[in-house]
């Protein structure tokens, strides 16, 4: 437990440093909650949303994803929503290269737009395109702390966790709707959670 806490804290500090190093001028405003939630494909196979994994791949034109990345489609789903919004929110037609350990972090859809599929790359991408996120405090002894902190807000949330088995960090990204993950289940219940990043949307007020 102590070793994991030490490693987890190192990973959390690394996330903070990486986001701090992003110094580009942020000129683009985040989309509104209404825009993004309407465009979001959700998880139909989990009982919420418009598309299953297979239906999403078909919509993208059978994008050639590595097998190990097909299980986590959270980055693809947010990419789909942003590209569907169009205009300056689109990811663009050039391959996206953020991760230093991989050749690319995105694939080309049949519409010619890029779709990020490596969730670890989405945080830095959003920070460069829009603004740096709010870093939500985590506590291994209080796993519900981020949920309480985010209560009453709407926006984009990214959960970063450390996996003791293979000694690496992984992430999931989704929309946060007041007190739960929007049109998805269990994305926030990741083991060894070390970082939660939140981009609050302009019209983020929740019903009282």
Give a verbal description of the structure.
- A hairpin with a 4-residue loop joins strand 1 and strand 2.
- This protein has a five-stranded antiparallel β-sheet.
- The chain has helices at residues 2-20, 33-39, 53-60, 74-85, 119-129, 145-150, and strands at residues 42-43, 48-49, 106-108, 114-116, 134-136, 153-163, 168-178, 180-181, 193-200.
- The longest helix has 19 residues, at 2-20.
- The chain is α+β, with helices and mostly antiparallel strands.
- The N and C termini lie far apart (40 Å).
- Residues 1-27 form the signal peptide.
- It holds the Pfam family Tae4.
Write the topology of this structure.
Elements: H1 2-20, H2 33-39, E1 42-43, E2 48-49, H3 53-60, H4 74-85, E3 106-108, E4 114-116, H5 119-129, E5 134-136, H6 145-150, E6 153-163, E7 168-178, E8 180-181, E9 193-200
Antiparallel strand pairs: 1-2, 3-4, 5-9, 6-7, 6-9, 7-8
CATH class category: Alpha Beta
Spatially, the strands of the biggest sheet line up as 5-9-6-7-8
* Second CATH tier, the architecture: Alpha-Beta Complex
Structural class, judged by helices and strands? alpha+beta
The biggest beta sheet reads: 5 strands, antiparallel
Any idea of the CATH topology? Answer: endopeptidase fold (from Nostoc punctiforme)
Which percent range fits the helix content?
25-40%
Q: List the helices and strands in order.
A: HHEEHHEEHEHEEEE
The total count of helices amounts to 6
Number of domains: 1
How much is the radius of gyration in Å? 16 Å
Q: How many beta-strand elements?
A: 9
Query: How would the global form be characterised?
Result: globular
Approximate strand percentage:
15-25%
Averaged pLDDT: 83
- The low-pLDDT segments are 20-25
Task: Kindly report the oligomeric state of this protein.
Answer: single chain
Distance between the termini: 40 Å
